[in-house]
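Lab meeting, action items carried over

1. Structure of the two-component assembly. Owner: GW. Status: complete.
Input record:
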Amino acid sequence: MSIKDRYAIVGLGITKQGRLPGMTENGIRAEAILKAIADSGLKKEEIDGYVYQPGGMMGGTGGDVPRMVGLAPKFLWSLNTGGGTAISSLISAIGAIESGAASCVVCSYASNWLSERRLVGAPAGGGEVRSTAASYGMFGPGPDHALAARRHMHEYGTTSLELGAIAVTQRDYANQRPESQMYSRKITLEDHQVSRMIADPLRFLDFCLVSDGGIAFIVTSAERAKNLLRPPVYVMGVGLGHQVRPGWNKDQYTTLDVAPSKEAAFKTAGITLDDIDVAELYDCFTITVLLETEGYGWCKKGEGGAFFAAGNTKIDGKIPMNTGGGNLSWGYNQGFTPFAEAVIQLRGDGGATQVKGAEIALASGHGGTGTGSMQYCHTTAILRR
Amino acid sequence: MVQAKPKKPLPLIEPETQAFWEAAKRHEFTLQKCQNCGAYYFPATDCNKCSSPKMEWVQASGKGKVFTFITMHQLYHPSFEGEIPYNVSIIELAEGPFMMSNVVDIPADDVKIGMPVEVVFEDVNDEVAMPRFKPAK
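Predicted assembly:
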């Protein structure tokens, strides 16, 4: 039986975004989870599933949190597909409920990287580093995505200024959302163009934020979702792709693995791209958003740069996108940032950046799973109110 | 107090890639070749094309083209102090496989996609020689 409309998001908990000095990742996660439970109206005893994206760059915090907040899950998974994890968690939660292993599953993310002053991609301090990529001076996801940006520019004539339009559009959204990390920090295209080069062709303002913050959401059956505190947000369809092919794939620097993910999600949902009212796409870097937008087909392959420069993703554009400001400007909670914003929009809680009458939202994820240069997973969730 | 200069990261040499790095030490550029259908890899367990398990490391041309590249401006590891900006490229080798490396011998800003390149080896210590690429003559 199809999962369409049989599962729902019933609770959403979001901590303050930005700098949270003195808070541990476990403390941030605990706050997000308690907020999500309170938001849902479920009793703590009803939360019998716990899926967490481990915090920390390497260590993996989060396993202690059920005890901290007084949960006794019978289904507990540590799950990490990088920026794909929110939707991977959703899929796991649906599987757990479908199989009878759990009935109400809380999924969560937490980070205190901003206070910890982590340089994402840098090897952990001290000692000898053994990594073939690092031996060539290659570090972290940003420079890897810069390889993709360069190739896209070569094949299609995409410009840094066009990538800047993505950064500025998302910042404009964040400037209208008081809870966002960059609420009071406006940027212009000129600011983007003079921001320092990190890995040419990607500049500082092509990169997502680093944030302290956490997000939790609760998944349950459509039946249990009735008569809770907030209107349910139903899951219409989900999908994944992993960009893993034998050997190297020439397209992997210009095309993310959206196709299989999109196909599965839309097939289950039984709708088409035109039915999507608002899109929340994973945005570790500006180029990522462009590649996803082309992958879904809001514009033709190679025309992403012009599409963003023309303002098609603004609130009154063809497809309002990353309406809270996203990982680039709202707060970096990886895949949980776009996923949470999709739920916010479908609840009508988007404030100044609410898309009027939004009925159906598409959220995506994109994340490293240790498979190689520009081999990232892509995840899709189609949600409705 | 004088601090020792931080050491450069070294490649991760594992059983699957040991032959490649042994050859590199002799300044020989090798790839894995399927003895059944002739496809080249870097490296693979079985041939992705014909599924043959008969894979051997063979001498390769060491020639290729720049497929894509970046110019690194961010200091991610202190051992690269003084080298920024530097190039990191994905090289499309003449035999087909892709590999990550550096284009050297020219300023980082002069590297172009499609540029023909050929391998050069840099002995970084007694155990490791790094294959990098310079513009082909």
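2. GW to write a short summary for the group page. Key points so far: The interface with chain B takes residues 119, 121-123, 128-140, 142-143, 146-148, 150-151, 154, 196-202, 246-248, 250, 253, 373 of chain A (CB under 8 Å). The CA atoms of residues 1 and 98 of chain A lie 10 Å apart.
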